[in-house]
Amino acid sequence: MSDTSTQFTRRPAPVSKPAVLTVAGSDSGGGAGIQADLKTIEAHGGFGASAVTAVTAQHTRGVESTHVLPAREVGAQFDAVAADLDVRAAKTGMLATAENVRTVADRAATADFPVVVDPVMVAASGDRLLDPDAEDAYEGLLAEAALVTPNAEEARVLTGIAVEDADSAAAAGEALVEMGADAALLTGGHVSGETVRDTLVTPDRTRTVDHPRVETDATHGSGCALSAAIAARLALGDDLPAAVEAGVEFVARAVRYNLDVGEGPGAVHHTVGLRNRAAREPAAEAVSEVVGRLVEADVSAVVPEVGTNVVGATPYAESVGETAAVEGRITRTLSGVRPTRGVRFGASSHVARFLLAAREFDPELRFAANCRFDADVEAALDALGWPVAEYDRDAEPDAVKEREGSTMQWGARRAFEAAAGTPVAVVDRGEVGKEAMTKLVASDPATLADRVVGLAEAVAGE
């Protein structure tokens, strides 16, 4: 029997979030449209509300059918949300018909919040999502937009300019601003090249945001996610350039770590940033556990003169600030090895940069440590039979040497490109003023600890 004397009514603790309204079509496959927008808004800390314009029978391979809602119902949804919720920003996606475009434009004209217009015309699969008559109606909606985010094909339809390079992207953006938009972001995913360049045009200047292209077809929902992320950031109080930069960074990560769903190319990972942030504490704890193992086992035999560092990356790490490491190093003492300080994010530079570069070849790699390298270590590596790769600093281009922190990325690329698979160890034989080093990598902390301890025992002849 429960003790009712301890029961009580709990006090509510409501949370306040800015509302972000998405006016778009439903994607039954969950990768784009309303579904993508709501996931993205929530991941950015907003409260997602919606006005559904159309229902699509859709999956990762294409669109099977579309049912467009009457414009009066679209308007009614918009009005209901705006009348009740504290909407701080809105975005549009698939509007389907000229009547829907005009309905949304009318409401955007009187809204007291910014509207991001994603002029969805064609799905990533090639299926058309906009009535041809609606293209002309977009001019009225653009005139009310705080930002319009077309890809190259959409920009061509809206402006007549073929976007093929930086100059034509800027010209198309300027044309959209002349049509009435406060700003235009020309997305570069559909323009060929190793680097994706997104071009933000405002009345006073043109900015570009560059990032490496990810070789994947799993971009379903990327445009929806970008416009939703920017709208969410605006709702949270970012200015436009900051919101755009954050949105671009978000989508770049979401595309790289895409979701393998369905029989088609898959979809972008809308909650990747949220999941990555949630993994920070476990990553730091894992590094601490590895350090504890190394101290307990006394791995003095493989600690180099500069000390050993242990680095752990979050699952979707893209920067040094998303790697946890020993602040300082693990150093040899008279009684064994000890870390000089605790674990914190961004504490490592060299080993962290090496690990991030290695993850370009094997994203499952999340942990790394540097050990010494000499004839004894080389013999131990041979005896252990681990796959070993190496790079030669003599082949390092001067341009790389001149860029601070670039050697580790260059070295990792050289080693992994030459390896048949993922190596356990990467050898750097050093040069004048640079100590020779062995980098050990692993996908989990226990394996990394086992490898460092195993190497130390092999060197010590145990």
Summarize the topology.
Layout: E1 19-27, H1 33-43, E2 47-59, E3 62-68, H2 71-84, E4 87-92, H3 98-110, E5 115-117, H4 132-142, E6 147-148, H5 152-159, H6 166-178, E7 184-186, E8 195-201, E9 206-212, H7 222-235, H8 240-256, H9 272-278, H10 280-297, E10 310-313, E11 323-326, E12 330-333, E13 336-339, E14 343-345, H11 350-359, E15 367-372, H12 375-384, E16 388-391, H13 398-402, H14 407-418, E17 425-428, E18 437-442, H15 445-460
Parallel strand pairs: 1-2, 1-4, 4-5, 5-6, 16-17
Antiparallel strand pairs: 2-3, 7-8, 8-9, 10-11, 10-15, 11-14, 12-13, 15-18, 17-18
Helix pairs in contact: 1-7, 2-3, 3-4, 5-6, 7-8, 10-15, 11-14, 12-15
What do you see in this structure?
Helix content is 39%, strand content 21%. It has helices at residues 33-43, 71-84, 98-110, 132-142, 152-159, 166-178, 222-235, 240-256, 272-278, 280-297, 350-359, 375-384, 398-402, 407-418, 445-460; strands at 19-27, 47-59, 62-68, 87-92, 115-117, 147-148, 184-186, 195-201, 206-212, 310-313, 323-326, 330-333, 336-339, 343-345, 367-372, 388-391, 425-428, 437-442. The strands form 4 sheets. It has a 7-stranded mixed sheet with strand order 14-11-10-15-18-17-16. Strands 3-2-1-4-5-6 form a 6-stranded mixed sheet, with helices on both faces. Strand 2 and strand 3 (62-68) form a beta hairpin. Helix 5 (152-159) packs across helix 6 (166-178) and helix 10 (280-297) runs parallel beside helix 15. The chain is elongated and about 80 Å long. It starts with 18 loop residues before the first strand and ends with a helix.
